[in-house]
């Protein structure tokens, strides 16, 4: 059977395939670039190594790189009009702002320019096009019903619609109902008084007018809401993770007074994105996060409720009601990442937003009717599921607490390096949250008692699968030895044995607590035990071997007296020998067996899956070129890892066929320890080692920042500024 060419139009000029099929193909192309729910933990290699697989595979990669997906969709959109209409929603679905010029191009594409007159002309064009398309649909429907649709009836319908739209009290000004070329220039027109409606209102007004006219004529024809030609309605994802202005040779004055990402521009473009659900900000543009921008982000959706302001004039009341009506037709945000946002503009805007919309009024504590109305009028962000405030140290604890408590649907929460206090944990303990991923690393105001009580008693964290309590020598984990013992023995998220990621760096762990108190963690894939100088290597090795055999990544930076810590001076050579003798050899090497009489069996596998160990820079320097298949991989920052380049998750047709023959489908695990020298994954890993730190910002293991935008949590992968925070920064 010959292959079908979906890109070849028929001889008649029309595409022979239905639009739904083309749209489904483009959807599959887009979904091929979405990271899987079960990642491989390794960096994403962008070379062409085969078709993405559903297994947690590093090679072929589990998903296509972003540029491959966009190039494929762009090629499809250039084929013909049918493919263009099918690919356009997916090309615009996710937008990552990288350079200032691309940001300005995005504004032009979505807004059609910032000039008021140009915007009004565009609305007029939209009105004319939608009127024509809707009239054609009505006339075609009348023909189907057996009625004659002559030119006179078409003109009569047109005039009736225009009278409904532009008559007394009509929703659209009369000047917009005439074609732009036929208008007479009027120099006396005052631009400040021009109130051209936004496109969403134009579309809905045209639809309402058609339904009213057809209802009066008793014609049983329904006309759907016309589609907005602006691409803003397709955008679901907008982030500034890769946005940079460094290297543009701009003066300090230009950087202050001539910003690219301003609050006005960001607010205007957000108003054209009614279906936006994911937003990511960084420190390079947090000066644009003004109060109107935050209102545009969070006061969306049909469940939003607003409290009336005092002392409003009738005009402001009407405008507020119109804004509320527009926001009700927008989708609520599902994921927001404010990593590193510390500017005074953002802090002041979020403080004012919380005090105005999220904080109950002073009389909201009583049970009177006024108190109940005040509580009902306070906003609740029901749609927000994933929230990140990593490094937002400038936010006051009360503001941060109130904002988080207004999000009852959170599943992923990153509060590392913030000033939250035990009061927030106490409030979350009585909330209805059900968190799956939580990061509380380096929260200097938390106490060990509050953390211990929270994880033992709170229902909100019983189902946590990824947990970070990271601390270092500067800001250690506040848990005492007794609190660590109680936490590991009683916290439901620990005793369930379902954790996949755990970081207890700088906690007061001892041999007895680790081996006798801590329960088994068979699902654990990444474990952080850095900055624990007194913890011996043999205790760590015994714990991994007996209680966490599925562990793949282990961090030991600043840990163990055998590696030169705990005020014990150990030569680098002795530390390297201890690492291989007590960690790598017993955990990563198969036991040796030899027999002349025993039958040939499958090779014995190592007792664990450990293949990546994070170490301090000094110890990595002492390891040199490594030993055997173990090599040193350094990030752009201060972190580095000792990696077994011959180990990794791979997928081969032979393995998939064998899984199917055993009735396991494609869900079997396949971690190889013996990759040959010419294997693509081993070649890529050795290339990272040879780069000596000159690698992408997304290269690394055991992330210290939670992946928010896609919902992968602490096992997710990121690049750009988010990747640097996850894998490069020491703190």
From TrEMBL:
Region (Disordered): 304-324, 653-677
Polar residues biased stretches: 653-664
SMART domains per the UniProt record, alphabetical: LRR_CC
InterPro entries associated with the record: Leu-rich_rpt_Cys-con_subtyp (IPR006553), LRR_dom_sf (IPR032675)
GO cellular component terms, semicolon-separated: SCF ubiquitin ligase complex
GO BP annotations, alphabetical order: SCF-dependent proteasomal ubiquitin-dependent protein catabolic process
PANTHER family attached to this UniProt entry: PARTNER OF PAIRED, ISOFORM B, PARTNER OF PAIRED, ISOFORM B-RELATED
Annotated protein name in UniProt: F-box domain-containing protein
The species this protein was found in: Heliocybe sulcata
